[in-house]
Design a protein that fits this description.
Largest sheet: 7 strands, mixed
CATH superfamily of the largest domain: Ribonuclease Z/Hydroxyacylglutathione hydrolase-like
CATH architecture of the largest domain: 4-Layer Sandwich
Number of helices: 10
Number of domains: 2
Strand order of the largest sheet: 5-6-7-8-9-10-11
Shape: elongated
Order of helices and strands: EHEEHEEEEEEHEHEEEHEHEHEHHEHEE
CATH class of the largest domain: Alpha Beta
Structural class: alpha/beta
Length: 400
């Protein structure tokens, strides 16, 4: 089954008309996108958008063989005038199936918002899922739909849709996830590709033809990632974004609750409110047992607070204790942690503060903490497939 993407953008296209934002200003060439529309085997058109016939011609395809046009967007009826020779668009009722003479079967997938998703099974059994903008499948049950060969969806706007599909086994390691309905929320080009790759997805230019069931282009999601950054750099947001498209994430908060500290409580609440509701939270610095267990992905926020706890336990703030075994005890804790990261089978995203580029601390204990955090970050990074530095909300890939 072949899929030609006549457009991959949001309903208003990218760049948006009359929008002065930086993303729209740089959405040029392959990064310019018409509204999303899919042509399946030249016979089935999913969504009819302005200029569809010309888009097909530019991609070396024709709409002359289209036998069915289906709409996914919330609105009823065709989006634009129907080109000559193309059937009138329709919509399949939720959970009903349509059989085409070409051998394709199309089942309407109920969504959690207005609109219709379509599960298409080709004549040879390949399975494609197409979701409308801003929507996620509703009423999913584990094993109810089987695994799709390709998912075409609003990965940027609704990463939780991908998480839901992964949770029930509808998306697996070999599923090709293609992001569409792309808008100006993420800068086009390298930044968009980086964010999608972290979610196990990719973007393709308008006019691309893909073979459903060919897995060579499915990106490998890094299993261990370290996200570094200064205060308020956006490092925690970057770390959380990397796991939004995965189910059952365990958020490991190493800072504790700090009873009575209202400012700290406000920070914790802000973090909790922006996390997906399906995530669980564990407040602990005992990371080694968690890393040794099989289970859901871990988001560890953060290693700098873990180090504070480890230095407290080792008495590392006192010069005499530091010289009399404290340093050895801390080194052992760090070694145990890095060995656990090396051996873990779980997906891990860890956050750490980058403090070595600022003012030299005035106290010996402060300088000791700065030095030990630098050593910890270096040792942890050595065990990660990907290392990212976040500056002013912009992520720079150091490794991977």
């Amino acid at each position: 089954m072949e899929l030609t993407l006549l457009g991959t953008g949001a309903p208003a296209g990218l760049p948006r008309p009359d929008c002065p934002c930086a993303a729209c200003a740089t959405a040029l060439g392959d990064d310019a996108r018409a509204a999303t529309a899919l042509l399946v085997d030249g016979a089935l058109l999913l969504d009819l958008t302005p200029g569809a016939a010309f888009a097909a011609a530019r991609a070396g395809r024709s709409l002359g063989g289209v036998r069915q046009v289906l709409l996914s967007h919330p609105h009823e009826g065709p989006a634009v005038e129907v080109p000559a020779g193309v059937p009138q668009p329709g919509r399949v009722p939720d959970r009903r199936e349509l059989a085409l003479l070409t051998g394709h079967r199309v089942r309407a997938v109920a969504m959690d918002s207005p609109g219709t998703g379509y599960a298409v099974t080709g004549p040879d059994g390949q399975r494609l899922l197409y979701l409308p903008p801003g929507g996620a499948p509703a009423g999913l049950e584990e094993g109810s739909s089987g695994m799709y060969d390709m998912v075409v969806a609003d990965v940027v706007g609704r990463p939780d849709a991908l998480a839901r599909l992964r949770a029930v086994g509808a998306v697996g390691p070999t599923t090709d996830v293609v992001a569409v309905h792309l808008d100006h929320d993420v800068p086009p080009g390298a930044e968009l590709r980086r964010r999608l790759a972290a979610a196990g997805a990719r973007a393709v230019p308008d006019g691309a033809t893909l073979v459903v069931g060919a897995y060579e282009d499915v990106p490998d999601v890094p299993r261990r990632t370290l996200v570094l950054g200064g205060a308020r750099s956006g490092k925690s947001v970057e770390a959380e974004r990397r796991l939004e498209a995965f189910p059952d994430v365990l958020y490991v908060a190493t800072g504790g609750s700090r009873s009575g500290d209202t400012e700290w409580a406000a920070r914790v609440a802000a973090h909790r409110e922006r996390r997906p509701g399906s995530w669980r939270t564990a407040e602990t610095c005992d990371l080694v047992p968690l890393l040794a267990e099989d289970g859901a992905p871990l988001l560890i926020d953060c290693l700098s607070l873990w180090l504070t706890d480890a230095m407290d336990a080792a008495g590392a703030w006192d010069d005499a204790v530091w010289a009399d075994g404290g340093e050895r005890a801390l080194r052992e804790r760090v070694r145990e942690l890095t060995e656990a990261v090396r051996a873990t089978r779980r997906s891990v995203v860890a956050v750490s503060n980058e403090v070595g580029s600022g003012i030299v601390p005035a106290t010996a204990s402060g300088r000791r903490y700065r030095d030990e955090l630098g050593r910890l970050s270096a040792a942890f990074a050595a065990e990660c497939e990907q290392v990212v530095l976040v500056v002013a909300g912009q992520a720079m890939v150091l490794r991977g």
